[in-house]
């Protein structure tokens, strides 16, 4: 497989540019199904104020030949911790990085961002068309309601 991080000590990469997303073979590439990654504690920095931003990400994908390796994904997400980026850019960068690496049949990412300046910003991106007949559950993240 040639994995560089799984089963080994791997420090948190200092930036997304230095992070290495990895993939593994899908042993069920002949079957249409959906895999989900949920990352409820994502952080990066506001590119204007330098203050922390927080998001809850849900990534759903119908794999083809490859699966996303989870430890490398965790380290990739953590590498954004000291990176300044707008919500839209961050969400699409994550989604496009995964899609480029694993070439899924279909992928969607929901970035549910906590309020910045009193306004929550949710960002959604989809790559491809879902295969016919697969079950795609709701992402399960309620719209932001504050104290109301």
From TrEMBL:
The keyword Iron-sulfur does not apply. One of its GO terms (cellular component) is cytoplasm. Its main location: cytoplasm. Its EC number is 1.7.1.13. The active site is at 46 (thioimide intermediate), 53 (proton donor). HAMAP family: QueF_type1. Catalyzes the NADPH-dependent reduction of 7-cyano-7-deazaguanine (preQ0) to 7-aminomethyl-7-deazaguanine (preQ1). Belongs to the GTP cyclohydrolase I family. QueF type 1 subfamily. This is NADPH-dependent 7-cyano-7-deazaguanine reductase. The gene is queF.
């Amino acid at each position: 497989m040639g994995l560089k991080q799984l089963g080994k000590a791997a420090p948190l990469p200092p930036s997304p540019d230095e992070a290495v997303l990895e993939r593994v073979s899908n042993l069920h590439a002949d079957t249409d199904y959906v895999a989900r990654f949920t990352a409820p504690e994502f952080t990066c920095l506001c590119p204007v104020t330098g203050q922390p931003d927080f998001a809850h990400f849900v990534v759903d994908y119908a794999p083809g030949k490859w699966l996303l390796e989870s430890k490398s994904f965790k380290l990739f997400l953590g590498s954004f911790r000291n990176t300044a980026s707008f919500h839209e850019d961050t969400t699409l960068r994550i989604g496009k990085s995964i899609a480029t690496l694993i070439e899924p049949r279909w992928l969607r990412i929901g970035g549910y961002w906590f309020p910045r300046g009193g306004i929550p910003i949710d960002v959604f991106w989809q790559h491809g068309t879902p295969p016919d007949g697969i079950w795609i559950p709701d992402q399960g993240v309620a719209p932001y309601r504050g104290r109301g």
